[in-house]
Design a protein that fits this description.
By secondary structure, the chain is mainly alpha-helical. Helix content is about 60%, strand content about 5%. It has one domain. The strands form two sheets. The chain has a two-stranded parallel ribbon. Helix 4 packs parallel to helix 7. It is globular and about 55 Å long. The relative contact order is 0.19. Pfam families: DUF5317. Keywords: Membrane, Transmembrane, Transmembrane helix.
């Protein structure tokens, strides 16, 4: 979710908000810590270690919980609830495609073959959830089809990331209003 956080920071910078107050807040550092862990896990994947992938769901949950600190500290309750609606929609879309494909999330790597994120010749993810997609996949448009080279996202994943964007932008806006 690093790119979502960076996009939120970029949008705030373009809107003229100062980012320094966010980095001065202790409440932002649990998120930065989780981002560092995420980057380490991505590097591990690039090096061919897929053993942690089975814990990706737990990590995503802990990562999203880190944003609760910002929501509570800066009283961004409405924005947090609004963002949570996107998490619910995204999760429902992911569950729908998983249900339609016998409990598996089809993945369609493309660019990731070139970056090395997915190695050619690997036949499965060994995480019990993801499978490589083929012509038999149902609801392909909801599968993991958005390949950014270091991650393959579904439409549901993109909806979930709206939560991060909304919370970060609203927090930075609030911090700038108090200057």
């Amino acid at each position: 979710m690093t790119e979502t956080l960076l996009l939120a920071l970029l949008v705030c910078k373009i809107k003229g908000y100062k980012l320094k107050p966010l980095f001065k807040s202790w409440a932002f550092y649990p998120i930065l810590f989780m981002e560092c862990v995420y980057i380490i896990l991505e590097i591990s994947t690039f090096m061919g270690n897929y053993s942690f992938v089975k814990y990706a769901g737990l990590f995503k949950l802990l990562y999203l919980y880190a944003y609760l600190i910002l929501i509570i500290k800066y009283k961004r309750y409405f924005q947090g609830a609004f963002g949570a609606v996107f998490i619910i929609i995204g999760s429902a879309l992911n569950k729908l495609v998983i249900y339609a494909n016998n409990g598996k999330m089809p993945v369609f790597p493309s660019f990731s073959y070139y970056t090395g994120y997915v190695k050619k010749g690997i036949t499965n993810y060994n995480d019990g959830l993801h499978i490589f997609g083929d012509s038999s996949v149902k609801l392909k448009f909801l599968s993991d089809i958005f390949d950014v080279g270091y991650s393959i996202l579904s439409l549901g994943d993109i909806f979930i990331r709206f939560f991060v964007f909304i919370v970060v932008v609203s927090t930075i806006k609030t911090l700038n209003e108090t200057l």
